[in-house]
């Protein structure tokens, strides 16, 4: 089913426009909340993914977070320069780079679950519990292939 036609499509009424605007708004609010930790929203995603054990390589991070490998490399360079993570070559396959959080990285990552929910809850304050659940369900449906 097509929801848009060339005749009915307008930029500001499109789902893509709203999703992008929401993403930018949320990123700006999260960036402001993370300023004291000296990291960005995208870097938060890396640290939380690593802390949660979901990823161990740059490729896995790129795939999970939807970030191209070039940008991922630059973000990892910055996090490594700040001594928040360490890269090591795999002993089994030298082409594979494994990532681990340093003690400083673990400390920063441990703060994130106390910061991000405050920002998200403020943005979601007008949602009822059922609206929030439906919103999350619909976003996940939107993201399906």
UniProtKB/TrEMBL annotation:
Record keywords: DNA-binding, Transcription, Transcription regulation
Keyword flag Transcription regulation: yes
InterPro entries with a match to the protein in the record: HTH_MarR-typ, WH-like_DNA-bd_sf, WH_DNA-bd_sf
Domain HTH marR-type: 8-144
MF terms (GO), sorted A to Z: DNA binding; DNA-binding transcription factor activity
Superkingdom as given in the UniProt entry: Bacteria
Name of the featured protein: MarR family transcriptional regulator
Organism per entry: Caballeronia novacaledonica
Organism classification: Bacteria, Pseudomonadati, Pseudomonadota, Betaproteobacteria, Burkholderiales
